[in-house]
């Protein structure tokens, strides 16, 4: 579904990602791990069009996307969440989810001003879809709440609901368990599995190794912007280079 070929990104003299190549199969949970500063979020930003590569190629469903903007990629079937909360706190919870469906809605100002029946009907359908997604991610009790009334863990899942509202084929999650307690992390774990079982390919950047090892079909390990290794959870866990990168090697 996704092929990354010799991808590099430099910021001035700093090489954040260096000659990274890998592939992601459709219907899998593919995790990207590495120490702080390894280039994980930069890699996600390159894939989702926020950054343009210095070198290399990104191919999504057979199409080169390295120069495509995030909104175009969303239309092609790619959606994401961010490491830091990106929730609109001046909106209701359900309106936040509805925002994720905006690319599929009639955006005509003329139609909105006249409140055409077809437009009202589609808005009602969108609201119901958003409510269903909130139930799906486990925050159904907040359907009638304002976003500012929701706890942090619920807001993390609300962001995933908003990303799913775009009906993506690939969902990229940047540290969805960051800042969560043990119970909330377990809920995110179950939700990611649920999303994958629904047919969405998941790309996960995460520091919680228990979560990663439990969920992942395949793991890519970065260190100082370079690919250290990749493989199954068992292969990565036993790799001495991975152990050295995370824990430090003896002199």
Question: Could you give the topology of this structure?
Answer:
Blueprint: E1 2-11, E2 14-24, E3 29-33, H1 40-47, E4 55-60, E5 63-64, H2 70-76, E6 78-80, H3 93-99, H4 109-114, H5 117-137, H6 152-164, E7 170-174, H7 182-197, E8 201-205, H8 209-215, E9 218-223, E10 226-231, H9 233-238, H10 240-247
Parallel strand pairs: 3-8, 3-9, 6-7, 7-8
Antiparallel strand pairs: 1-2, 1-4, 4-5, 9-10
Question: How do you describe this structure in short?
Answer:
With 251 residues, this protein is α/β, with parallel strands linked by helices.
Describe what you observe in this structure.
- The protein has helices at residues 40-47, 70-76, 93-99, 109-114, 117-137, 152-164, 182-197, 209-215, 233-238, 240-247; strands spanning 2-11, 14-24, 29-33, 55-60, 63-64, 78-80, 170-174, 201-205, 218-223, 226-231.
- With 251 residues, the chain is of the alpha/beta class.
- A 6-stranded mixed beta sheet has the order 6-7-8-3-9-10, with helices on both faces.
- Strand 1 (2-11) and strand 2 (14-24) form a beta hairpin.
- The longest helix has 21 residues, at 117-137.
- The mean pLDDT is 90.
